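User: Can you write out an input/output pair for a complex, sequences first and structure second?

Assistant: Here is one pair. Inputs:
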Amino acid sequence: MNSRLLRWQRAVGWLALVLVALDVYFVFFYAPTEKYMGDVQRLMYYHVATAWNAYLAFGLALVFSILYLWRRDERFDRWAVSAVEVGVVFTTLVLITGPLWARPVWNAWWKWDDPRLTSTLILWFIYIAYLILRASIEGPRGKRIAAVFAVIGFVDVPIVHFSVQWWSSFHPQVISSQGVNMTGEMVFTLAYTSFAFMALFFYLLLLRANVERIKAETERLEERLSAD
Amino acid sequence: MKSFVRASWAVAEKDLRIQFRLKSLLLSMVVFALLIQVLLHFSFQANPAALEQMAAGLLWLPVFLSTLLGIGRLMAIEEPEENWEGLWLTPADPGAVFMGKMLGSLALVALVESVSVPLFFILFNPPVPQSFPLLLVTLLLGTWGYVSLASFFSVMARMSRLGDLLLPILLFPVSIPLLLGVVRLTQMALFPTMPGQEGLWLAVLIAYDVLFTLLPVLTFEYLLEV
Amino acid sequence: MTYLAAGTFIVWLAIFIYTVSLSNRLAKLHRRMEELKQALDEKGA
């Protein structure tokens, strides 16, 4: 990989690669086949692992956004937008693996009654809105306004989660780890996969934040060049 | 506290005076809401049998969509002659400025509802509401929360290259909980379904309104900042 | 292709594509930055 990362950052990348490669063994061989759903249930490990890490991403985005509004240090904004972007990528994967798991189990790609999938969809929209917002306003103002939106969006997340759950309480059909009879091996596999994806998440976060940093640097240099 | 209220009222009063003098925006919003009602009727081929499921949507969508379209115009008033900068420079709390814009918009949307809600009853002939007070409270809470966020996000959207187009993208996902609450409560108010859930959804709406009025008030300064 | 295979494949492919595109973007920007630095040096001289 032709990158310009520091040595420790590259090490995170290799670590993530090793952990994720090892994960294949756990997901496909170590974990037993689920009694009722069969092998397709193995998608759950990727589905849940990416979901948890997406939540981590958006939580970090909240922290960085607040720090940015407080300190106005551009580095915080860089971390915030990077966290959101990687979070959106992970959330997209949740929304893809969900229906692929659901289809053979329920005979339907999407069930609006499923509160988890529905809240994830709304989460996805909220953070895509953040990215569009930030991209469509120039300069520090754009970063500031996006940060405010990140705070409001994150506060909304638990409200969305619970209201969708209460709304769907008539028909509880959940495509998540709760619908599954989990053995010890499955619990371990889930934990390990989540951890592996967390390493991957941090590597992607570092990569994306560096892109943002170099981008800011080139813009500054371009300005200086044209100023002469 | 008193200066906060006074400042909010000053902004709201100014906006309302402008709107009542012009009347064109208010009229357009009302007409638009009614047109949506007609459009929805044809789109969903609403029939009496389906009314129980459709009613809440038929009641609320005209309000949501007409607010979406009209609120940009209300915020746009401040754009000529750098009014926003002027408001930023006043000693008034930025939160008070926001409350003023929000309350002015709320009054206008309430006027739109005073036409569209009775017309809903006339056009679609739902049975007499099980609980009229519940319907009224739902209208109040739902409109308050929606208008608060719509005002706030409208200011954000208008600062971007995309302008008003960005508003629904910002507003709709965040306001889903509100939508769920008002739909459930409206259903309960209009038809005899399951009681005992009203408390829950009323609590959700109240918490939502408090949170999403407080947050915009506290953070509006970041939007006004020059 | 089973649903499991499709899902797994999409997850790996998406992450791979994202990682590679970020790396490429980083490298490209880095090259641009070096170019600009050089141009500024020449101007200063």
